[in-house]
Amino acid sequence: MDDKARRDGIRYGEETVARGAGGETHQIARDGRTSLTTQQGIPVSDDQNTLRAGERGPDLLEDFHFREKVFHFDHERIPERVVHARGFGAHGFFEAYEPLSDLTRADLFQRAGQRTEAFVRFSTVAGSKGSFDLARDVRGFAVKLYTREGNWDLVGNNIPVFFIQDAIKFPDVIHAAKPEPDRGFPQAQTAHDNFWDFASLMPESTHMLMWIMSDRAIPRSFRFMEGFGVHTFRFVNAQGRSTFVKFHWKPKQGMQSVVWNEAVKINGADPDFHRRDLWDAITQGAYPEWELGLQLFDDDFADRFAFDVLDPTKIIPEEELPVRRVGRLVLDRVVDNFFAETEQVAFCTQNVVPGIDFTNDPLLQGRNFSYLDTQLKRLGSPNFTRLPVNAPRCPVAHFQQDGHMATMNPSSRANYEPNSWSPEEGGPREDPVRGFTTYPSTDSGPKRRLRPESFADHYSQARQFYLSQAPVERRHIVDAFTFELSKCERPDIRARMVAGLRNVDDDLARTVADGLGLPALPDPLPPAREPVRDLAPSPALSIIANGPESFAGRKIGILVTDGADAGVLAELRAAAAEEKTNVEIVAPAVGGVDTSDGNHVSADQKLEGAPSVLYDAVAILTTKEGATQLANLPAARDFVTDAYAHCKFVGYVEEATALLAATGLNGHLDDGFVRIDDGQRPAADFLTRCRRLRIWDRQAAPS
Ligand code: HDD
User: Fold this and answer.
1) Which domains are assigned to the chain?
2) Ligand 1 within 6 A of 342 CB?
3) ipTM greater than 0.90, yes or no?
4) Which cofactors does this gene product need (predicted)?
């Protein structure tokens, strides 16, 4: 309907109906577009006006199109996930490097080069669906593998341990972390009394607290973080032999996080920072990859190991049990529809395939109960397994039937078994050879509610994690504890948490206590069991020690003004392309600038909408006049001072000096400030230096 027609209230009509090649009817409107129809396929003539009696109403009940349209809209929302509500998914595949038939009969591990379709959903835990991406939080790393023998869901996180040891405490830890029930805030953060009250009363959470107060909880991108299956699982081979296994996802892009001050600002500048990053990477063909790593061990190792391998608050350090890389996960396709795929995907920890089995980890056992339940609540029907994103890619044959939205029901005579009907009419039968068989472990004992003594050392690995961090990472942990506890209104909660930290590291506890201004250092909390203390540090636990080898997949923001040197810009672009680094042009106006050669360069971003927190490094390409103009713009000064404060590399041309002077940084130009208009191959040199990611010396180590 054109504007005039809309104004005049003239109804649209006279559609033509075309017949498709197959004889099917297509509704084709006059302009060649598909006709709008109701859900029943009835072509709609007017979607602008309700049916009414007389020119000015009233509306008529008879208007079935309006009724249907609003009815459907009213029912668009489904309950958001009770945890991990905010997430982002993508499609891809898993490719096995080698056959693992000696370890497992799982079909996806039988042949080198075999590919298995995959869907991955990353998420934050505490925030609601509409919260921001860079909350300090655990990231979900849920992988659905559509194997030829059914779906295997490895529902993990980017942190290898968990807050609690027993699933019965899950509602409590989540209630404590979520907005407080009377006031409904704070959103997507643990910096409040309820969380720290619970955490300080649950010493088993201490190891996890170290991880979530570390930079692991503010990743730069989903692409730059590790994933973990957390629990100990079992592999079972065709002969029935079992091997314990812990699953790891190792990002081929290397690890990287942001700093807290940066995270806070990113949330304002681009609340969708992580989802946009993944979307952009995949649509640009820079497919992120992770290698699947396995830690494999037997009963002897489990008996020798200093902690219980069934305790989900413990890791097995990689230095003690190396991670064997057995395949790669590649994400190469974004979703077609967010709701259909990312929202409706239903992960269930109990989805395992023949060759993979559970252990008695009490958290895992409890999870197996919870996930199916939650999917029924969210998706409204036991037939959620029929949704394309959830449906196995292998044949499915059973006698389950009916229910809401049933789309696949038995069509032959029998809907039960055993039956005496012929193979055609009688349906499927059990398959003792291919079928899933539970590993026959012998478990017995008196029925009791208790926590095993072997789970009782809550502090040794927390300390190991802390001492394995680089000094600047330790400082970030100290700052995070201090910040979060400073948001607690009750001094006794702050003090109790510091008392717990004394069992981890006295310097840590003391510095946090000082930062909070506690009147006195509280006595350490009495530990449930004397900690092992001083375990060897594990270098694998540091992000900084495991950074990327190149600057690939990162993004540079180049701030330009009119007259910017076209040659330097071209060199910078070429060097970035060589390093597989993305470039965005930032300018005072989004229309762009005219460079020194008279050419016009359009901008990707207007300066005020593209603070330097959105980039891994920045460059300033300007003239003397341009620099003076920039020096007067708060957004331009922030662009530089934030890049400095967040320890980023800054490339600049000599003419930018006026801007640097206006930020007061002129006397502080360290290694991270790199001239890109001076030297042999200055742009390439700048990109090479950027591989270090940050100049951490700008942040002093803890005293
Ligand atoms: Fe959970 C969702 C990961 C413990 C109950 N969990 C959920 C998701 C991830 C995890 C990544 C989001 C899946 C998606 O993207 O749809 N959960 C974990 C990890 C845990 C863990 C790594 C500990 C090692 N979870 C855990 C426990 C329980 C739950 C102990 C309950 C007893 N989790 C759920 C749930 C959710 C969920 C309520 C909410 C939405 C959903 O399942 O699909 O069932």
Assistant:
1) 1-76 (4.10.91.20), 86-176+219-386 (2.40.180.10), 551-698 (3.40.50.880)
2) no
3) yes
4) heme
